[in-house]
Amino acid sequence: MPRSKVYVNSIGMTTIADHWEYSILDMAVEASRGALRGFGKKKPDQIIVGNMFSAVGAHQEHLGAMLADGLGLSGSPAFKVESACSSGGTAFNVGYNLVRSGAIDSALVVGVEKMRDLEPEDVSQALAMAESAEYTQFVGATFAALNGLLARYYMEQMDVSRDELSSIPVIDHSNAVTAAHAQFRKAITPEVVSRSAMISDPLRLFDCAPVGDGAAAVLLVNDRAASGTKRKMAEVLGGRIATNEFSLYEREDMLDFKSTHLAFRGAMEDAGLAPSKISLAELHDAFSVVGALSLEAMGYSKRGHASKDARAGKYGRGSELPINTFGGLKARGHPVGATGVYQIAEAYLQLTGQAGENQVEGAEYAVTQNVGGVDTTAAVHVFGRAS
Amino acid sequence: MSIQYWRIRDRYYRLIGSKCADCGDEFFPPVYRCKGCGSEHVMDREMPKTGRIMTYTVLHEPLPGFEAQTPLYLAVVKLDNGARILTQIVDSPEDSVKTGAKVRATVRRAMVDGDSGQIIYGYKFIVSS
């Protein structure tokens, strides 16, 4: 049976911020309504929620049925998908494969996370659940600590300087200035990074993605569900999930982001595209070093060179491969389980010419990379303009 | 929660990891299958208590329960058998904690499991050179 073409029909999202006044369901409903507005009176065949730690952040599980009811869609199949910070990208991959297989015609994929209701140390604890309770949490290590270990290793092995490492956060903040949904819309210099508070040496505050609340939604359709629409859509050309050895320190080569490499290679094979065709990349740069190693795993920079390349202007606005065109995780924000869906919504805006001041001129193909753990799970998707 | 840690107390006290019966590779934490050759013939094995720091960090905002130990010195240590372990570095002058430094294992209080929970002991490492 031929596989269906799959499109992103429409999107919705909240700003990423301290949404004290809104519950996790309030945010999920708002983002979903945005995406469903593009579907008239039709109902999606399936609802899939990407979320990492609602059990901790909001004492709430069973988000699928809860959101379906909130949207007046009780009766519809609905469930939650979890894979730490890649929950959003993974939920999208499930929806994509269901529509592509022909099993369903449409799916609403919603990523949501409520982080700011928690005290900062409880956020650290919740995020650490993505790593081994018995051997990582047991020694007191947070996610920032694991990335601090990785950053020092990267800098020492590859001779990367402090200011070079700062180059991706600088690009992120520059791009977020004109991004309406971004959490921190302020440009920074490398000095801002190198003078910010030390979190886990050598990583400083401005190496690390912030904590915020947010929800993003996309509506996936095949040709049948899209019939009659005159909307501009983006086509999903490919997408894969891959995993690495669970904990960073168990890996023979800590600098090899295997899951990103495998998922990217598979997604590009699905799409039948050479990596050089990609017009923009939305990266999972939860920490500066992760952005750099991700670009190296995708083959856009040589090993050890991504931060240096970024500093030389390779990944900025107007370059051959602009990254994080709305601010990436550092400046757009990183409401963990929602992040992967924000990235896809951003790719949609770029490919349908709706990115406003952030528009990448002539954008034809976009890639999104969403990661859980330190490259432990990667969900990579490739998009094109719908012809 | 205490039971989760009690169950693997030997792994914490004596650094019990795994050895592959086929290729001889050794691992900590323990594995179900050899990461080197893929064999399922793995058995418990006590790890050597010495190694070298591969990379380290100084963590200023540790997980809840570790506040009294802040800042926390954490390292990935390559043990003398090649296994890699994530551990705290304690009782060592600040400037001795660096990449390549020789370290040895010790047993220390690791965490207190809640207000009325048991005290859990585990491995930590000390710079030895």
Shape of chain A: globular
* Most extensive protein-chain contact, per-chain counts: A-B, 40 and 34 residues
Please bin the fraction of helical residues of chain B.
under 10%
Order of helices and strands of chain B: HHEEEEEEEE
Strand content of chain B: 35-45%
User: What form of chain B results from the Cα inertia axes?
Assistant: globular
Secondary structure tally, helices of chain A: 15
Low-confidence stretches of chain A: none
SSE sequence of chain A, one letter per element: EHEHHEHEHHHHHEEEHEHEHHHHEE
Q: Which sheet architecture does the biggest sheet of chain B show?
A: 5 strands, antiparallel
Most strands sheet of chain A: 9 strands, mixed
Strand content of chain A: 15-25%
Distance between the termini of chain B: 37 Å
Q: Which architecture name of the largest domain in chain A does CATH use?
A: 3-Layer(aba) Sandwich
What is the number of helices of chain B?
Answer: 2
User: Would you state the CATH class of the largest domain in chain A?
Assistant: Alpha Beta
Strand order of the largest sheet of chain B: 6-5-4-7-8
Radius of gyration computed on alpha carbons of chain B: 15 Å
In short:
The complex is a heterodimer of chains A (387) and B (129). Chain A is an alpha/beta fold. Chain A has helices at 24-36, 54-57, 63-70, 87-101, 120-128, 143-158, 162-165, 167-176, 190-195, 223-226, 258-271, 288-297, 306-311, 328-331, 336-351, and strands at 6-13, 47-50, 78-81, 106-113, 198-200, 203-204, 214-221, 234-243, 280-282, 365-372, 377-385.
